[in-house]
What we know:
This is Efflux RND transporter periplasmic adaptor subunit. This protein is an alpha+beta fold. The protein is built from five helices and 23 strands.
Amino acid sequence: MNKHLIAAALAAASLSLAGCADERAPQAQQQQLQPIDVAPVLVKPVQSWHTYTTRLESPEEVALMPRVSGIIDSIEFKEGDVVKQGDVLFQLDKRPFAAVVASLEAQIHSAEAALEQAVSEDKRAMRLLERKAISTEQAQARTSTLRQREAQLAALQAQLTSAKLDLEFTSVVSPIDGIISRANITKGNNVLAGQSVLTSIVSNKAMYAYFDVDERTWNSAFNDVTAQSRQTVVMQKVGQKEFAYQGHINFIDNQINSATGTLRVRAVFEQDSNQLRAGSFARIKLAANEVSEKVIIPERAIGTDLKNRFVLTVGENNVLEYKLIEVGERYGALRAVTSGLNEGDVIAVNGPARVGPGMPISPNTVTIDTDGVAFTLSNDNAQLMAKQ
């Protein structure tokens, strides 16, 4: 009898322990779920950006050559300096030119005296002709001599003007404001007018960037852009992470290049810090005018599976689901999604680094940070967009 009682008691105890274990199992499983940051996707109005490569060009560039031939007497600048229009850069030996000027001035004085005598003789001939004291032929000869003296004086005066210009051109001046290069020909060397390149000067007030936009892109994204609308662009130099320079379109070509199917466009970047140099390689970003709403998610939320991009969304019972997406423009640390996600979807914001599809999680809802991110271009946020 006691044996039966003991067996029954043991069986009851076992059932009680099993029931307690079954009650604790869901609690233990719940405690083991991994906490994951999740957030609802954002839907924002955005503009797409198009990137082009270019090399900077100066609006004004001069290969400086002398207007007269001669010997370089002195160099009046420091190589690499900023020069102003009218600054004397090279001084040629002016003595031969000054001698020509002096000679012509002396000849003019002689011609003026001869002209004065010819005028006096012509007047006297006219008086004598009235009294029939001189023949008509003699009077006409004196008038002809007067006209010759006048022509000789005019010719000498023109030669003097030219000689004075040559003397002035012995001072080779800068025709533009800009940055000067090195001296290609040094002191003591002979230079030839219109042939010897003394140095080069490039304007530093602004820089041009020419780039070609394909016809399809221009018609779909920029068809209403004109040079007068001053469409904003931003630029990045080689070795920089940010698009730190802001400019605008100031020229659009008048026809499509039929050979390439592209339209030549020019942006101008006005700056005073001399940070831009002609010939530099650069990248241009141009914002399309059309604004459209796109789903926005963090870049880190996107995973890569062979050739596919995907995110993990939170489904029923907080189970992660695999969802293929197509991505668009990047905006700082965020990315636009063109297909695969809809408003209201909730994603794992840190991506598939620690979790995978089919895994139940303990969701920790956070908000996607958009501080300091510009999704559309405006005068207030153009520079902000350039930094992304």
